[in-house]
């Protein structure tokens, strides 16, 4: 105990630390209900202590014990509190801009950052390379149906299966007029994307001389929240150059993805956060 610290202060800090230890264990459970004995074992605290902590957290509404269950879990109120903390400011573009500049400088190609918005993929940032390209999304703020282009395909493939099926049911008719997108070809490409953990386009479609490659961006919970993509003249994304591009994109995506706030408002309402990196 510090000289200026009273016994009450020390006791309060101890309670706070024990409470956060319990919250972290429940968060790591990822929705699984944990019994008192499990929580005590994982936190290294006595069962009586954990029981008191849980009762306090339940009184505050951030932990709940569903009816007829001996397990505990984080409540919706806890997630609402976390979401509210990220409501007013977005750091997504601020985080990724240096990585995109590095990639564009090293590859000499155009780099895109895309996120999902409903049934679409939205370009939230773009850094142009030395070789001019045309893309489906165009400039910042452009959008395409999920499944179109390498970035849109990564975002579609990463969805839970039931949700992905609903998006496909809605989007395939939107893409039918292009003549090169149908249900069979999209399912084949999704399967390849899930196996390879990247999506590649090789000049097929609207821009036959342009190729692209995209990798998923995972948040700290391992959920795909964005796609990091490169587009270039088709000869620049050759089979020989492919491993280097994939490795570079993944390295930057993983390094910055670990810093993403899963509740970043730009992931839910990207169109409102295209003006500046701080949501202004």
From TrEMBL:
<dbReference type="GO" id="GO:0045892">
    <property type="term" value="P:negative regulation of DNA-templated transcription"/>
</dbReference>
<protein>
    <submittedName>
        <fullName>IclR family transcriptional regulator</fullName>
    </submittedName>
</protein>
<dbReference type="InterPro" id="IPR036388">
    <property type="entry name" value="WH-like_DNA-bd_sf"/>
</dbReference>
<dbReference type="GO" id="GO:0003700">
    <property type="term" value="F:DNA-binding transcription factor activity"/>
</dbReference>
<dbReference type="InterPro" id="IPR050707">
    <property type="entry name" value="HTH_MetabolicPath_Reg"/>
</dbReference>
<dbReference type="GO" id="GO:0003677">
    <property type="term" value="F:DNA binding"/>
</dbReference>
<keyword id="KW-0805">Transcription regulation</keyword>
<keyword id="KW-0804">Transcription</keyword>
<feature type="domain" description="IclR-ED">
    <location>
        <begin position="77"/>
        <end position="262"/>
    </location>
</feature>
<dbReference type="InterPro" id="IPR029016">
    <property type="entry name" value="GAF-like_dom_sf"/>
</dbReference>
<dbReference type="Pfam" id="PF01614">
    <property type="entry name" value="IclR_C"/>
</dbReference>
<keyword id="KW-0238">DNA-binding</keyword>
<feature type="domain" description="HTH iclR-type">
    <location>
        <begin position="13"/>
        <end position="76"/>
    </location>
</feature>
<dbReference type="InterPro" id="IPR014757">
    <property type="entry name" value="Tscrpt_reg_IclR_C"/>
</dbReference>
<dbReference type="Pfam" id="PF09339">
    <property type="entry name" value="HTH_IclR"/>
</dbReference>
<dbReference type="InterPro" id="IPR005471">
    <property type="entry name" value="Tscrpt_reg_IclR_N"/>
</dbReference>
<dbReference type="InterPro" id="IPR036390">
    <property type="entry name" value="WH_DNA-bd_sf"/>
</dbReference>
